[in-house]
Target: Carboxypeptidase Q
Amino acid sequence: MEPWLHAAANDAALMSDFKMVCGFGGRMSGSGQDDAAMAWAMARAGEAASAVQTLTVPYDAWRCVAASLDLLGPAGRPLACRPLLRSASTPEGGLELDVADAGRGRPEDFERLGEGARGRAVLVRHEYPFTGDHVHRRRKYDMAVEAGAAAFLIANNVPGQGVLSGSSGRPRGVAGIPAAYIEHEGGEALAAACAAGNGRVRIVVRGAEIEDACASVGLAEVAGGRDGVIVISAHMDGHDLGVSALDNGTGVAVALAAFRALAARVGPDTPSLRLCFFCAEEWALTGSARYLAALAPAERARIKFDINLDTVAGDASLTALISDFPALETVVEAAAGASGVPVGIWLPLMPNSDHANFARHGIPALRLLAGFGKPESRVNNILSAGDVPAIIEEAELRQAVAVTCAMADAALRMSDAQLDSLASR
Ligand SMILES: [Zn+2]
Model:
């Protein structure tokens, strides 16, 4: 490993930065914790940057006012639940509904259920989000809506882990159905009741729109002498069951360390380096979507490559999700070689973090991720109360810094023609 890369991986402030980010709490957008963490991070990035700026973008904020779920019938009892962000509301007294068990809630499950979903509370299961054939919660929700379901219940797939937190993706002004996470054990109870022919629940979800809410976007830049921009991005916001250590305290801390190390590698012969921290990522990737949409086309075209860091520790394995940009494979392989850290590659676009919004604008973008294809890894604490700093190994963070630095440095050394070729598909 080159000495500068070795020094970057050994960044003295990496662990204290990581603990600091987690110390702000879960950083749910709307809580103020995300903005407080952003202010701290921008001051931190400002020590290495030639310019820093914090923008705000509008997002469809919402909060839960009341929620409950009761299993009715012979085995009746209350079940723990947590509404998905932006869930539709029930009438004030709630809804009493028969439950239809849709298994994992994959397309074939909804096909099998057919009209059996209509007017019912559909029960599906959460899946470990980082496998090649994973079906995302928001897609399951959309399929339930399309099938005419009256409510959507998604059970945690991990026993003993409690409920999870996540977004329904329902935009403001769009009709939807009440939707909530339930515990693994609650899912088992509902499934047993369904099998016995008496799966019936009362669900109450009451939410309130928060008008005129804004999410922060933090930008720090080291200006190079050439026109292009290499971006390192990470989302600052999270969920509040734990402290969003995996998702995404790891990405924020690694991005700050990489930015510090790379600042000195930017010069008259390189493009610029920009650090982008987004909020409202957990709200259907809204923060980065609005930031990119608001850029003038010429300004957007200056961005040559986005390295998005989201959940980059929690397992020793790292994978680059390269968003259908095959040319990024050589960049990742070169970085793996330079850093001595193996990095797997997954070509198809996985729209599960901010890189997807860059990719949709034709900008070569990847997400660096730990634990891809490893549902038994510590990454399975994501979105749960178990997402706390203690599940992260220091060595995992350090190797992520090395890989990130090596990828960004490879891009900084490329000619304009080489950078442009990264976008070919
Ligand atoms: Zn994330």
The chain has two domains: 3-59+213-421, 62-210. The longest strand covers residues 61-71. Residues 394-413 form the longest helix (20 residues).
